[in-house]
Automatic annotation (TrEMBL):
Source organism: Aquimarina brevivitae
Protein name: UDP-3-O-acylglucosamine N-acyltransferase
Pathway: Bacterial outer membrane biogenesis; LPS lipid A biosynthesis
EC category name: transferase
Keyword Transit peptide: no
Length: 342
């Protein structure tokens, strides 16, 4: 897609300084800008690059003052960083504004969908599926029977949404994500063999949730696994059966959450965190990366370690962990002195 400076200024309500007809077709970092690219300057540390960049257009704050000649056309805005983010959103909206049903694809006779849907090739919509307006379903997506999906939802290529799942409005499900797989429910018998416990519940994902690539959310054994409004899930996360994640909690990649654990609102959970089952984690909890959680956590705690302890306690203890060989050596020497004196 090609945009002129005057078009971009119109989108951002900006002021042009330079050639308003100059065209751009790509984005770039300011230090890597080439002809035909658009960039921005918001961090003062990068100001030096505006004098050497080959980018055709640069978005800057209105109060920016050039100290020497520029070859790039400027678009002055109130906040360059926010303006560039707005432009990225607009670009994605235009790029992803696909509609229509590609073939081959399968739509059950009982499935329903709203206006402006895009359904990519080789996708499957099962019986009684109900999809809202402006949905974008990319190629090779499987949507099982009795699934409900709200308005303005994007499901990227290769995602799988099992039967009975419910997804709210304005959600994004990235490639390879699996929503509604069976929970890990098995019971041993007297022979030491395992029998499967039927997983008869579902998954409920509320509005404005992002599910990262390769993430799996298991259906409940009974009831629902629930991902509340505004939750952000990174790539390759495992969420087990009957877990509930509170509103606006963000979880980084490779975290695993065992069955029936409840996580509160506005939590931040780092990468590779392991959380045991049947726990309660309060609101506004911070869990540092690679922590192992085996106990309930109160509201507002920040913890680290495996097993996890208070964050400040962990930092204090770590000083001693590093010096443990020296401390042990001193203890041995003291023990020898005491023994000799005896």
């Amino acid at each position: 897609m090609i945009f002129t400076a005057i078009q971009i200024a119109g989108i951002l309500d900006g002021e042009i300084e330079g050639d308003e007809t100059v065209e751009v077709s790509k984005l770039a970092k300011i230090e890597e800008g080439t002809e035909g690219s658009l960039t921005f300057l918001s961090n003062p540390k990068y100001t030096q690059y505006i004098y050497s960049t080959n980018a055709s257009i640069t978005i800057v704050d209105k109060n920016f003052e050039a100290e020497s000649d520029l070859t790039t056309t400027l678009i002055r805005v109130d906040d360059a960083y926010k303006a560039f983010s707005k432009l990225l959103e607009y670009y994605n909206m235009v790029k992803m504004n696909k509609t229509g049903i590609e073939q081959p694809s399968f739509i059950s006779a009982s499935a329903k969908y709203g206006e402006n849907m895009y359904l990519g090739a080789f996708s499957y919509l099962g019986d009684n599926v109900n999809i809202g307006k402006n949905a974008k379903i990319y190629p090779n997506v499987y949507i099982g029977d009795n699934v409900t999906i709200g308005d303005n939802v994007v499901v990227f290529a290769g995602a799988k949404i099992y039967s009975e799942s419910i997804i709210g409005d304005n959600c994004v499900i990235h490639s390879g994500a699996i929503v509604g797989a069976d929970g890990f429910g098995f019971t041993p018998n007297e022979k030491g063999e395992y029998s499967k416990v039927p997983q008869t519940g579902n998954v409920i994902i509320e509005d404005h949730v992002d599910v990262g690539a390769g993430t799996t959310i298991d259906r409940a054994t009974l009831g629902s696994t629930i991902i509340r409004r505004g939750v952000k899930l990174d790539n390759q996360i495992q969420i087990a059966h009957n877990v509930e994640i509170g509103e606006h909690t963000a979880i980084a990649a490779q975290t695993g959450i065992a069955g029936s654990t409840k996580i509160g609102k506005h939590c931040l959970i780092g990468g590779q965190v392991g959380i045991a089952g049947h726990l309660y984690i309060g609101d506004k909890v911070r869990i540092q990366a690679q922590s192992g959680i085996g106990r309930n956590i109160k509201d507002g705690e920040t913890i680290q370690g495996s097993p996890a302890i208070g964050y400040s306690d962990f930092n204090k203890s770590y000083v001693h962990f590093k010096n443990l060989p020296k401390i042990v050596d001193k203890l041995y020497k003291l023990e020898k002195k005491i023994t000799k004196n005896d």
